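Section 5.1 Outputs to date
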Amino acid sequence: QQEKEDLQGKLKLREHLSQTAGKSEATPVPSKNIDLEVKQLQCKLKTSNNEITKQLITIKSLKNEVQEKAEQIRERQAKISRLERDLSMKRRLIEDLRSHLKANQENEKTLNVTLESLQRKVKALTEDCSSKKTSIDSLKQRLNVAMKEKSHYEQIHQRTKDDLLKKDLKLTKLESKTIETERAMIELETAASEQLHILAKQSAQALETVQKKLLLTSDKVEEFKTFVKTLTRELQHSIQELRTKIKHAKKMGEMKACKKSLSQESVQLAASILNVSTTDLEEILDVEDDEETAKTKVEFEKDKEWLQHIQKLLEAQFPFASYLMDAVLEKLNEKKKLVEEYSSLMKHTV
């Protein structure tokens, strides 16, 4: 710029000089040299202008670079500030992590202690579990037994239910029969009352005949009662005879078995040792045992109870025929079983 200013100043001087030279003809100056200098100066001025424009371009580019660098510096400073913040945060985090690590180490120690205690507890629990497992197995076995018993009892319960149903049916039949008999009795009573009314209207002779009939019916009832009593006694007597026969047959069978097992010589030897005869020895062997006597006592008591039951039924109010029939049938069934047993024993003894 200074060179430009100097050159501009020189040009102005030259122009002034040329003007003054044109005016003053008295002082002649060589024009050729001045033109050359002016041309040189113009060339220099052009070159300097070009250089100035170049310099301006470079300055602009440098300014742009400076601005970019300033922006980069600002960005970098921001980054540095951010990094410093991150660093401080990371330091704090590291310190926190160190404190956490210390706390975790302490926790780890306590956890190790608790883990050891838990392992001990686990061992104890496993032992307890094994013992409980054995007890559970035993309980399962018991449960299986109980289930079997339950099924057995359920079967018994079902059977009893069926029996009860059958008995209920019998009871309903008996009730219907009793109702029918009651109806018949009511009809008879009504008929009797009507007849009594008629008879009351009739003569005293008819009353005497009715009294005679009533006496006859009472006598018939008494005869029926005596018949039932004698029948039951005879039935009991026949059952007792059958029992004694069965006992005798059993003893005979036992005696025969003993005789078969023992030879005549051994029997005579036993008699000579005991200093008794063979018949006495047989009588000794024929003595009843305690169990048989107890059994006979029980049977006798049962027979006694049965007779008392029959007596109560006869003394009871009407209707009692079905109950009496059941009681007699029960004894007859017992007699039938005893007859079958006696016949089978007799077959075996023969």
